[in-house]
Recover the amino acids of this structure.
């Protein structure tokens, strides 16, 4: 595993727990649970309070989930 990151594009947060964020990705209009631990500090979309924006996650997670 590396710390390489990848943008998933624009995302809108829908729900949040202590460990994950449910987002709707503009690229596929699907809902995805994203663990808080893989969301980059550079991400614009990282919580319900942050609102919509670019979602940046660790590359290994995006590839594992078929998002990259």
């Amino acid at each position: 595993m590396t710390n390489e990151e990848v943008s998933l594009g624009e995302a809108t947060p829908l729900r949040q727990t202590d460990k994950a964020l449910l987002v709707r990705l503009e690229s596929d209009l699907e809902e995805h649970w994203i663990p808080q631990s893989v969301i980059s500090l550079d991400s614009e979309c990282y919580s319900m309070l942050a609102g919509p924006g670019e979602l940046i996650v660790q590359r290994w997670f995006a590839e594992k989930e078929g998002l990259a």
